[in-house]
Amino acid sequence: MGGGSVAAVGGGGGDGKDYPGKVTKYVTFTALSAAAGGLIFGYDIGISGGVTSMAGFLKPFFPAVYRKEELHHSANQYCKFDSQILTLFTSSLYLAATFASFVGSKLSNKYGRKVLMTWGGLIFLVGAIFNAAAVHISMLILGRILLGTVPLYLSEMSPHKSRGKFNVLFQLSITLGIFAANLVNYGTGFIHGGWGWRISLGGAAVPAIMMMALSWFLFDTPTSLLERGKKDEAKAQLQRVRGVANVDLEFNDIMNASEASKSVGNPWSNLLKRQYRPQFIMSFMIPFLQQFTGINVVMFYAPVLFKTLGFGSSASLASAVITGLVNVGATFISVFGTDIWGRRPLFFVGGGIMFVFQGVLAALIGSQFGYSGQAIDLSKGIAVLIVMCICAFVAAFAFSWGPLGWLVPSEIFPLEIRSAAQCVTVGTNMIFTFLIAQVFLKMLCSMKFYLFVFFAVFELVMTVFVFALLPETKNIPIEEMTKIWRDHWYWKRFVVDKDDGKYSRGEGDLEMNLGELKALDH
Ligand SMILES: OC[C@H]1O[C@](O)(CO)[C@@H](O)[C@@H]1O
Protein backbone atom coordinates (compact mmCIF):
# COMPACT_ATOMS: atom_id res chain seq x y z
CA MET A 1 0.00 0.00 0.00
CA GLY A 2 1.30 3.44 -0.89
CA GLY A 3 2.23 5.96 1.73
CA GLY A 4 -0.57 8.28 0.66
CA SER A 5 -3.42 6.05 1.71
CA VAL A 6 -1.81 5.52 5.06
CA ALA A 7 -1.71 9.25 5.58
CA ALA A 8 -5.37 9.33 4.64
CA VAL A 9 -6.21 6.79 7.30
CA GLY A 10 -4.01 8.57 9.81
CA GLY A 11 -5.73 11.80 8.89
CA GLY A 12 -9.15 10.23 9.28
CA GLY A 13 -12.23 11.40 7.49
CA GLY A 14 -14.85 13.80 8.83
CA ASP A 15 -13.13 16.72 10.42
CA GLY A 16 -14.38 17.66 13.86
CA LYS A 17 -15.44 14.07 14.55
CA ASP A 18 -16.56 13.58 18.13
CA TYR A 19 -16.21 10.08 19.55
CA PRO A 20 -18.64 9.30 22.37
CA GLY A 21 -17.01 8.59 25.71
CA LYS A 22 -16.44 9.81 29.24
CA VAL A 23 -13.45 9.86 31.54
CA THR A 24 -14.15 6.56 33.31
CA LYS A 25 -12.52 5.27 36.45
CA TYR A 26 -10.57 2.88 34.21
CA VAL A 27 -8.99 5.77 32.37
CA THR A 28 -8.22 7.68 35.54
CA PHE A 29 -6.86 4.65 37.32
CA THR A 30 -4.80 3.56 34.37
CA ALA A 31 -3.36 6.99 33.90
CA LEU A 32 -2.41 7.16 37.57
CA SER A 33 -0.87 3.71 37.55
CA ALA A 34 1.09 4.27 34.41
CA ALA A 35 2.36 7.55 35.79
CA ALA A 36 4.07 5.59 38.57
CA GLY A 37 6.78 5.00 35.97
CA GLY A 38 7.39 8.73 36.06
CA LEU A 39 7.93 8.59 39.82
CA ILE A 40 10.81 6.19 39.38
CA PHE A 41 12.34 8.26 36.63
CA GLY A 42 12.00 11.41 38.74
CA TYR A 43 13.40 9.83 41.87
CA ASP A 44 16.53 8.76 40.04
CA ILE A 45 16.95 12.18 38.46
CA GLY A 46 16.67 13.94 41.80
CA ILE A 47 18.62 11.58 44.00
CA SER A 48 22.09 11.53 42.46
CA GLY A 49 22.92 15.24 42.75
CA GLY A 50 22.28 15.33 46.48
CA VAL A 51 24.20 12.13 47.00
CA THR A 52 27.22 13.41 45.08
CA SER A 53 27.32 16.48 47.27
CA MET A 54 27.51 14.39 50.47
CA ALA A 55 30.88 14.02 52.15
CA GLY A 56 30.06 10.47 53.26
CA PHE A 57 29.65 9.45 49.63
CA LEU A 58 32.51 11.48 48.16
CA LYS A 59 35.12 10.45 50.71
CA PRO A 60 35.20 6.70 49.96
CA PHE A 61 34.31 6.79 46.27
CA PHE A 62 35.68 10.08 44.97
CA PRO A 63 38.48 11.07 47.35
CA ALA A 64 40.07 13.49 44.87
CA VAL A 65 36.84 15.48 44.51
CA TYR A 66 36.37 15.41 48.24
CA ARG A 67 39.83 16.92 48.80
CA LYS A 68 39.26 19.64 46.20
CA GLU A 69 35.95 20.47 47.77
CA GLU A 70 37.51 20.82 51.16
CA LEU A 71 40.12 23.26 49.81
CA HIS A 72 37.38 25.83 49.70
CA HIS A 73 39.51 28.92 49.40
CA SER A 74 42.29 28.05 47.02
CA ALA A 75 40.37 26.25 44.27
CA ASN A 76 38.64 27.84 41.31
CA GLN A 77 34.99 27.64 42.37
CA TYR A 78 33.75 26.81 38.88
CA CYS A 79 35.92 23.70 38.82
CA LYS A 80 35.44 22.32 42.32
CA PHE A 81 33.40 19.32 41.22
CA ASP A 82 34.92 18.83 37.80
CA SER A 83 35.39 15.07 37.65
CA GLN A 84 34.35 12.91 34.73
CA ILE A 85 33.96 9.85 36.90
CA LEU A 86 31.72 11.68 39.31
CA THR A 87 29.46 12.82 36.47
CA LEU A 88 29.49 9.32 35.06
CA PHE A 89 27.80 8.15 38.25
CA THR A 90 24.84 10.37 37.37
CA SER A 91 24.94 10.13 33.60
CA SER A 92 25.64 6.46 32.87
CA LEU A 93 22.08 5.60 33.75
CA TYR A 94 20.86 7.70 30.82
CA LEU A 95 23.37 6.27 28.42
CA ALA A 96 22.02 2.82 29.11
CA ALA A 97 18.48 4.19 28.97
CA THR A 98 19.13 5.37 25.41
CA PHE A 99 19.72 1.81 24.30
CA ALA A 100 17.01 0.47 26.55
CA SER A 101 14.42 2.75 25.00
CA PHE A 102 14.99 1.10 21.62
CA VAL A 103 14.64 -2.41 23.00
CA GLY A 104 11.61 -1.30 25.01
CA SER A 105 9.46 -0.59 22.00
CA LYS A 106 10.15 -4.00 20.46
CA LEU A 107 9.26 -5.75 23.69
CA SER A 108 6.21 -3.58 24.13
CA ASN A 109 4.89 -4.44 20.66
CA LYS A 110 5.38 -8.11 21.32
CA TYR A 111 4.17 -8.57 24.88
CA GLY A 112 2.05 -5.50 25.54
CA ARG A 113 2.76 -2.65 27.90
CA LYS A 114 1.23 -4.18 30.99
CA VAL A 115 3.69 -7.06 31.11
CA LEU A 116 6.51 -4.70 30.45
CA MET A 117 5.54 -2.46 33.35
CA THR A 118 5.42 -5.35 35.79
CA TRP A 119 8.85 -6.51 34.74
CA GLY A 120 10.21 -2.99 34.66
CA GLY A 121 9.12 -2.45 38.25
CA LEU A 122 10.76 -5.68 39.32
CA ILE A 123 14.03 -4.80 37.67
CA PHE A 124 13.97 -1.35 39.26
CA LEU A 125 13.41 -2.95 42.62
CA VAL A 126 16.41 -5.23 42.22
CA GLY A 127 18.43 -2.24 41.05
CA ALA A 128 17.48 -0.17 44.09
CA ILE A 129 18.43 -2.94 46.50
CA PHE A 130 21.66 -3.47 44.63
CA ASN A 131 22.41 0.26 44.81
CA ALA A 132 21.72 0.68 48.46
CA ALA A 133 24.01 -2.21 49.24
CA ALA A 134 26.76 -1.73 46.72
CA VAL A 135 26.55 1.59 44.87
CA HIS A 136 26.46 -0.05 41.52
CA ILE A 137 23.99 1.32 39.09
CA SER A 138 24.00 -1.28 36.36
CA MET A 139 20.86 -3.02 37.62
CA LEU A 140 19.06 0.26 37.93
CA ILE A 141 19.95 1.04 34.34
CA LEU A 142 18.16 -2.07 33.09
CA GLY A 143 14.91 -0.90 34.59
CA ARG A 144 14.85 2.01 32.16
CA ILE A 145 13.61 -0.28 29.43
CA LEU A 146 9.99 0.59 29.98
CA LEU A 147 10.20 4.32 30.45
CA GLY A 148 9.55 5.03 26.82
CA THR A 149 6.26 3.21 26.86
CA VAL A 150 4.71 5.20 29.67
CA PRO A 151 3.85 8.47 27.88
CA LEU A 152 2.65 6.51 24.88
CA TYR A 153 0.40 4.41 27.05
CA LEU A 154 -1.22 7.43 28.70
CA SER A 155 -1.92 9.14 25.44
CA GLU A 156 -3.72 6.19 23.93
CA MET A 157 -5.94 5.60 26.93
CA SER A 158 -7.50 9.00 27.43
CA PRO A 159 -10.28 10.60 25.36
CA HIS A 160 -8.74 13.23 23.13
CA LYS A 161 -10.48 16.21 24.76
CA SER A 162 -8.63 15.75 28.04
CA ARG A 163 -5.59 14.05 26.59
CA GLY A 164 -3.37 16.94 27.60
CA LYS A 165 -4.28 16.60 31.24
CA PHE A 166 -3.64 12.87 31.34
CA ASN A 167 -0.38 12.97 29.57
CA VAL A 168 0.89 15.83 31.66
CA LEU A 169 0.34 13.55 34.66
CA PHE A 170 3.41 11.69 33.50
CA GLN A 171 5.54 14.79 33.88
CA LEU A 172 3.82 15.60 37.17
CA SER A 173 4.83 12.24 38.51
CA ILE A 174 8.41 12.85 37.37
CA THR A 175 8.48 16.12 39.29
CA LEU A 176 6.99 14.44 42.36
CA GLY A 177 9.71 11.82 42.12
CA ILE A 178 12.38 14.51 41.93
CA PHE A 179 10.87 16.36 44.88
CA ALA A 180 10.67 13.19 46.95
CA ALA A 181 14.33 12.57 46.20
CA ASN A 182 15.24 16.13 47.24
CA LEU A 183 13.42 15.65 50.54
CA VAL A 184 15.00 12.28 51.21
CA ASN A 185 18.46 13.71 50.51
CA TYR A 186 17.81 16.62 52.82
CA GLY A 187 16.87 14.16 55.57
CA THR A 188 19.64 11.62 55.03
CA GLY A 189 22.20 14.44 54.85
CA PHE A 190 21.81 14.73 58.65
CA ILE A 191 22.55 11.07 59.37
CA HIS A 192 25.77 10.61 61.31
CA GLY A 193 28.36 8.13 60.13
CA GLY A 194 28.19 9.13 56.46
CA TRP A 195 25.96 6.32 55.25
CA GLY A 196 22.80 8.34 54.63
CA TRP A 197 23.34 8.09 50.86
CA ARG A 198 22.54 4.36 51.10
CA ILE A 199 19.01 5.20 52.22
CA SER A 200 18.77 7.80 49.45
CA LEU A 201 19.70 5.34 46.72
CA GLY A 202 17.72 2.46 48.23
CA GLY A 203 14.63 4.68 48.39
CA ALA A 204 14.10 3.99 44.68
CA ALA A 205 12.60 0.70 45.86
CA VAL A 206 9.44 2.49 47.02
CA PRO A 207 8.21 3.72 43.61
CA ALA A 208 9.38 0.43 42.09
CA ILE A 209 7.12 -1.57 44.43
CA MET A 210 4.28 0.86 43.75
CA MET A 211 4.69 0.36 40.06
CA MET A 212 4.65 -3.40 40.29
CA ALA A 213 1.56 -3.36 42.48
CA LEU A 214 -0.30 -0.97 40.19
CA SER A 215 0.63 -2.71 36.97
CA TRP A 216 -1.15 -5.75 38.35
CA PHE A 217 -4.45 -3.90 37.90
CA LEU A 218 -3.65 -2.47 34.50
CA PHE A 219 -5.00 -3.66 31.21
CA ASP A 220 -3.65 -3.21 27.73
CA THR A 221 -4.88 -0.48 25.43
CA PRO A 222 -7.35 -1.30 22.64
CA THR A 223 -4.71 -0.33 20.10
CA SER A 224 -2.11 -2.58 21.60
CA LEU A 225 -4.58 -5.52 21.74
CA LEU A 226 -5.53 -5.00 18.12
CA GLU A 227 -1.91 -4.89 17.10
CA ARG A 228 -1.54 -8.32 18.65
CA GLY A 229 -4.60 -9.66 16.79
CA LYS A 230 -7.11 -9.66 19.69
CA LYS A 231 -10.03 -7.88 18.04
CA ASP A 232 -12.90 -8.81 20.36
CA GLU A 233 -10.92 -8.06 23.44
CA ALA A 234 -9.89 -4.75 21.94
CA LYS A 235 -13.47 -3.68 21.35
CA ALA A 236 -14.62 -4.74 24.81
CA GLN A 237 -11.70 -2.86 26.22
CA LEU A 238 -12.60 0.30 24.35
CA GLN A 239 -16.18 0.08 25.63
CA ARG A 240 -14.92 -0.30 29.16
CA VAL A 241 -12.41 2.50 28.78
CA ARG A 242 -14.88 4.95 27.27
CA GLY A 243 -17.78 3.90 29.52
CA VAL A 244 -20.30 3.71 26.65
CA ALA A 245 -21.54 0.78 24.52
CA ASN A 246 -21.42 2.53 21.20
CA VAL A 247 -17.80 2.96 20.34
CA ASP A 248 -18.15 1.83 16.72
CA LEU A 249 -16.98 5.04 15.15
CA GLU A 250 -13.78 5.22 17.14
CA PHE A 251 -13.20 1.47 16.98
CA ASN A 252 -13.47 1.47 13.20
CA ASP A 253 -10.98 4.27 12.96
CA ILE A 254 -8.58 2.49 15.27
CA MET A 255 -9.01 -0.69 13.26
CA ASN A 256 -8.39 1.04 9.97
CA ALA A 257 -5.30 2.68 11.31
CA SER A 258 -4.11 -0.61 12.74
CA GLU A 259 -4.73 -2.46 9.46
CA ALA A 260 -2.90 0.22 7.57
CA SER A 261 -0.01 0.06 9.98
CA LYS A 262 0.28 -3.69 9.50
CA SER A 263 0.23 -3.45 5.74
CA VAL A 264 2.85 -0.74 5.56
CA GLY A 265 5.22 -2.86 7.57
CA ASN A 266 8.33 -1.43 9.10
CA PRO A 267 7.69 1.75 11.15
CA TRP A 268 11.37 2.66 10.90
CA SER A 269 11.43 2.87 7.13
CA ASN A 270 8.06 4.67 7.23
CA LEU A 271 9.49 7.27 9.54
CA LEU A 272 12.15 8.10 6.98
CA LYS A 273 9.60 8.63 4.23
CA ARG A 274 9.14 12.16 2.99
CA GLN A 275 5.52 12.38 4.09
CA TYR A 276 6.51 11.86 7.73
CA ARG A 277 9.26 14.46 7.65
CA PRO A 278 7.48 16.83 10.08
CA GLN A 279 6.93 14.08 12.65
CA PHE A 280 10.48 12.82 12.20
CA ILE A 281 11.97 16.27 12.76
CA MET A 282 9.74 16.82 15.80
CA SER A 283 10.54 13.42 17.28
CA PHE A 284 14.14 14.56 17.46
CA MET A 285 13.94 18.32 17.95
CA ILE A 286 11.45 18.42 20.83
CA PRO A 287 13.45 16.26 23.25
CA PHE A 288 16.73 17.75 22.02
CA LEU A 289 15.55 21.29 22.71
CA GLN A 290 13.93 20.24 25.98
CA GLN A 291 17.28 19.08 27.28
CA PHE A 292 19.08 22.18 26.02
CA THR A 293 16.97 24.37 28.25
CA GLY A 294 19.60 23.32 30.78
CA ILE A 295 16.93 22.04 33.16
CA ASN A 296 18.94 19.05 34.25
CA VAL A 297 21.80 21.22 35.33
CA VAL A 298 19.44 22.25 38.10
CA MET A 299 17.72 18.88 38.55
CA PHE A 300 20.91 16.83 38.75
CA TYR A 301 23.34 19.31 40.15
CA ALA A 302 21.36 21.85 42.18
CA PRO A 303 23.04 20.84 45.45
CA VAL A 304 26.44 20.75 43.74
CA LEU A 305 25.73 24.11 42.10
CA PHE A 306 24.67 25.67 45.37
CA LYS A 307 27.78 24.27 47.04
CA THR A 308 29.86 25.68 44.19
CA LEU A 309 28.35 29.06 45.01
CA GLY A 310 29.50 28.66 48.57
CA PHE A 311 26.29 27.48 50.27
CA GLY A 312 26.78 25.12 53.21
CA SER A 313 25.89 21.41 52.94
CA SER A 314 22.42 21.48 54.36
CA ALA A 315 21.63 24.90 52.81
CA SER A 316 22.47 23.34 49.43
CA LEU A 317 20.22 20.36 50.03
CA ALA A 318 17.48 22.65 51.36
CA SER A 319 17.69 24.89 48.29
CA ALA A 320 17.25 21.82 46.12
CA VAL A 321 14.07 21.05 48.08
CA ILE A 322 12.78 24.52 47.23
CA THR A 323 13.46 24.18 43.49
CA GLY A 324 11.92 20.71 43.60
CA LEU A 325 8.75 22.08 45.16
CA VAL A 326 8.52 24.88 42.61
CA ASN A 327 8.91 22.27 39.88
CA VAL A 328 5.92 20.28 41.16
CA GLY A 329 3.77 23.37 41.75
CA ALA A 330 4.29 24.88 38.32
CA THR A 331 3.57 21.59 36.58
CA PHE A 332 -0.02 21.95 37.83
CA ILE A 333 -0.38 25.02 35.64
CA SER A 334 0.20 22.71 32.73
CA VAL A 335 -2.14 20.02 34.03
CA PHE A 336 -5.00 22.51 33.84
CA GLY A 337 -3.71 24.77 31.11
CA THR A 338 -2.67 22.63 28.14
CA ASP A 339 -6.21 21.73 27.13
CA ILE A 340 -7.51 25.26 27.78
CA TRP A 341 -4.84 27.56 26.40
CA GLY A 342 -3.21 25.10 24.05
CA ARG A 343 0.38 24.00 23.71
CA ARG A 344 1.88 26.89 21.76
CA PRO A 345 1.09 29.71 24.22
CA LEU A 346 2.67 27.68 27.04
CA PHE A 347 5.77 27.06 24.92
CA PHE A 348 6.11 30.79 24.20
CA VAL A 349 5.60 32.06 27.72
CA GLY A 350 7.78 29.32 29.24
CA GLY A 351 10.60 29.83 26.73
CA GLY A 352 10.52 33.61 27.24
CA ILE A 353 10.70 33.42 31.03
CA MET A 354 13.51 30.84 30.92
CA PHE A 355 15.48 33.08 28.55
CA VAL A 356 15.19 36.11 30.83
CA PHE A 357 16.09 34.34 34.06
CA GLN A 358 19.01 32.36 32.65
CA GLY A 359 20.36 35.71 31.48
CA VAL A 360 19.93 37.29 34.91
CA LEU A 361 21.51 34.24 36.53
CA ALA A 362 24.55 34.50 34.26
CA ALA A 363 24.90 38.18 35.14
CA LEU A 364 24.58 37.54 38.88
CA ILE A 365 27.08 34.70 38.97
CA GLY A 366 29.46 36.58 36.67
CA SER A 367 29.31 39.69 38.84
CA GLN A 368 30.12 37.71 41.98
CA PHE A 369 32.66 35.13 40.87
CA GLY A 370 34.11 36.85 37.80
CA TYR A 371 35.94 34.82 35.22
CA SER A 372 38.54 33.47 37.60
CA GLY A 373 35.99 31.91 39.95
CA GLN A 374 37.59 33.34 43.07
CA ALA A 375 35.99 32.20 46.29
CA ILE A 376 33.91 34.84 47.98
CA ASP A 377 31.26 34.78 50.62
CA LEU A 378 28.01 35.58 48.87
CA SER A 379 25.86 38.16 50.63
CA LYS A 380 22.55 36.82 51.82
CA GLY A 381 20.70 39.09 49.40
CA ILE A 382 22.60 37.80 46.37
CA ALA A 383 22.20 34.18 47.50
CA VAL A 384 18.43 34.68 47.77
CA LEU A 385 18.35 36.35 44.35
CA ILE A 386 20.22 33.42 42.78
CA VAL A 387 17.81 30.90 44.30
CA MET A 388 14.87 33.00 43.09
CA CYS A 389 16.22 33.14 39.54
CA ILE A 390 16.65 29.39 39.52
CA CYS A 391 13.10 28.97 40.84
CA ALA A 392 11.65 31.23 38.14
CA PHE A 393 13.55 29.27 35.50
CA VAL A 394 12.39 25.93 36.89
CA ALA A 395 8.77 27.12 37.13
CA ALA A 396 8.78 28.26 33.51
CA PHE A 397 10.19 24.93 32.36
CA ALA A 398 7.70 23.03 34.48
CA PHE A 399 4.61 24.46 32.82
CA SER A 400 6.02 24.36 29.30
CA TRP A 401 8.83 22.26 27.92
CA GLY A 402 8.75 19.73 30.76
CA PRO A 403 5.29 18.25 30.21
CA LEU A 404 4.93 19.31 26.58
CA GLY A 405 8.18 17.56 25.77
CA TRP A 406 6.31 14.29 26.36
CA LEU A 407 2.80 15.29 25.43
CA VAL A 408 3.36 16.75 21.99
CA PRO A 409 5.45 13.87 20.60
CA SER A 410 3.02 11.30 21.93
CA GLU A 411 0.08 12.91 20.15
CA ILE A 412 1.54 13.79 16.76
CA PHE A 413 2.66 10.34 15.63
CA PRO A 414 0.21 8.28 13.57
CA LEU A 415 0.12 4.58 14.36
CA GLU A 416 2.17 3.50 11.35
CA ILE A 417 5.24 5.34 12.64
CA ARG A 418 4.38 5.63 16.31
CA SER A 419 6.63 3.02 17.85
CA ALA A 420 9.67 4.12 15.85
CA ALA A 421 9.04 7.83 16.35
CA GLN A 422 8.45 7.38 20.07
CA CYS A 423 11.74 5.48 20.22
CA VAL A 424 13.52 8.42 18.63
CA THR A 425 11.88 10.80 21.10
CA VAL A 426 12.74 8.82 24.19
CA GLY A 427 16.18 7.86 22.86
CA THR A 428 16.97 11.50 22.04
CA ASN A 429 15.74 12.63 25.44
CA MET A 430 17.94 10.05 27.12
CA ILE A 431 21.08 10.67 25.06
CA PHE A 432 20.95 14.42 25.66
CA THR A 433 20.08 13.94 29.30
CA PHE A 434 23.22 11.81 29.40
CA LEU A 435 25.32 14.40 27.61
CA ILE A 436 24.23 17.30 29.77
CA ALA A 437 24.76 15.23 32.91
CA GLN A 438 28.18 14.14 31.72
CA VAL A 439 29.59 17.42 30.46
CA PHE A 440 27.91 20.05 32.63
CA LEU A 441 30.58 20.19 35.31
CA LYS A 442 33.32 20.26 32.68
CA MET A 443 31.48 23.02 30.78
CA LEU A 444 30.99 25.03 33.95
CA CYS A 445 34.70 24.72 34.64
CA SER A 446 35.71 25.92 31.19
CA MET A 447 32.89 28.32 30.17
CA LYS A 448 32.36 29.78 33.69
CA PHE A 449 29.23 31.89 33.98
CA TYR A 450 28.94 32.04 30.19
CA LEU A 451 27.50 28.57 30.41
CA PHE A 452 24.22 30.15 31.49
CA VAL A 453 24.37 32.51 28.51
CA PHE A 454 24.80 29.43 26.33
CA PHE A 455 21.56 27.95 27.66
CA ALA A 456 19.77 31.30 27.35
CA VAL A 457 20.59 31.38 23.64
CA PHE A 458 19.05 27.94 23.25
CA GLU A 459 15.88 29.13 24.95
CA LEU A 460 15.55 31.81 22.33
CA VAL A 461 16.19 29.35 19.52
CA MET A 462 13.58 26.88 20.79
CA THR A 463 10.92 29.55 21.15
CA VAL A 464 11.45 30.67 17.55
CA PHE A 465 11.43 27.02 16.46
CA VAL A 466 8.02 26.41 18.03
CA PHE A 467 6.66 29.68 16.66
CA ALA A 468 7.64 28.81 13.11
CA LEU A 469 7.30 25.06 12.91
CA LEU A 470 5.11 23.47 15.55
CA PRO A 471 1.36 23.67 14.89
CA GLU A 472 -1.21 23.65 17.69
CA THR A 473 -2.43 20.17 18.63
CA LYS A 474 -5.03 21.06 21.27
CA ASN A 475 -8.35 19.20 20.88
CA ILE A 476 -7.37 17.33 17.73
CA PRO A 477 -7.97 13.55 17.87
CA ILE A 478 -4.78 11.55 17.39
CA GLU A 479 -6.30 9.83 14.40
CA GLU A 480 -6.86 13.16 12.67
CA MET A 481 -3.53 14.71 13.43
CA THR A 482 -2.19 14.61 9.85
CA LYS A 483 -4.37 17.61 9.08
CA ILE A 484 -2.24 20.00 11.16
CA TRP A 485 0.73 19.35 8.89
CA ARG A 486 -1.33 19.54 5.73
CA ASP A 487 -2.45 23.02 6.75
CA HIS A 488 0.96 24.25 7.87
CA TRP A 489 2.80 26.87 5.80
CA TYR A 490 6.03 24.88 5.70
CA TRP A 491 5.17 21.25 6.36
CA LYS A 492 2.37 21.10 3.82
CA ARG A 493 4.92 20.54 1.07
CA PHE A 494 5.75 17.18 2.66
CA VAL A 495 2.33 15.96 3.75
CA VAL A 496 -0.11 15.64 0.92
CA ASP A 497 -2.63 12.92 0.31
CA LYS A 498 -4.69 11.64 -2.53
CA ASP A 499 -8.01 12.36 -0.79
CA ASP A 500 -7.30 16.03 -1.19
CA GLY A 501 -6.83 15.73 -4.91
CA LYS A 502 -3.10 16.08 -4.38
CA TYR A 503 -0.57 13.31 -4.68
CA SER A 504 1.67 11.73 -2.17
CA ARG A 505 5.17 10.84 -3.09
CA GLY A 506 5.88 7.23 -2.13
CA GLU A 507 8.78 5.24 -3.50
CA GLY A 508 8.72 5.25 -7.26
CA ASP A 509 5.94 7.77 -7.33
CA LEU A 510 6.97 10.58 -9.60
CA GLU A 511 3.90 12.72 -9.25
CA MET A 512 4.22 15.98 -7.41
CA ASN A 513 1.69 18.33 -6.05
CA LEU A 514 0.96 21.58 -7.76
CA GLY A 515 2.94 23.72 -5.36
CA GLU A 516 6.10 21.74 -5.94
CA LEU A 517 5.69 21.89 -9.71
CA LYS A 518 5.34 25.64 -9.46
CA ALA A 519 8.42 25.84 -7.29
CA LEU A 520 10.36 23.89 -9.92
CA ASP A 521 9.19 26.26 -12.64
CA HIS A 522 11.05 29.14 -11.03
O1 LIG B 1 11.18 18.15 35.85
C1 LIG B 1 12.42 18.12 35.20
C2 LIG B 1 12.65 16.84 34.48
O2 LIG B 1 11.81 16.71 33.41
C3 LIG B 1 12.51 16.13 32.32
O3 LIG B 1 12.77 17.11 31.36
C4 LIG B 1 11.68 15.07 31.72
O4 LIG B 1 10.58 15.61 31.09
C5 LIG B 1 13.79 15.65 32.86
O5 LIG B 1 14.80 15.53 31.92
C6 LIG B 1 14.01 16.67 33.92
O6 LIG B 1 14.93 16.26 34.83
From TrEMBL:
Membrane topology field: Multi-pass membrane protein
Primary site of residence: membrane
Keyword DNA damage: no
Annotated CDD domains: MFS_STP
Keyword terms, alphabetized: Membrane, Sugar transport, Symport, Transmembrane, Transmembrane helix, Transport
UniProt-listed Pfam families: Sugar_tr (PF00083)
GO cellular component, one term: membrane
Domain Major facilitator superfamily (MFS) profile: 30-474
SUPFAM superfamilies hit by this protein: MFS general substrate transporter
Family from the record: Belongs to the major facilitator superfamily. Phosphate:H(+) symporter (TC 2.A.1.9) family.
Name of the featured protein: Major facilitator superfamily (MFS) profile domain-containing protein
Organism: Cinchona calisaya
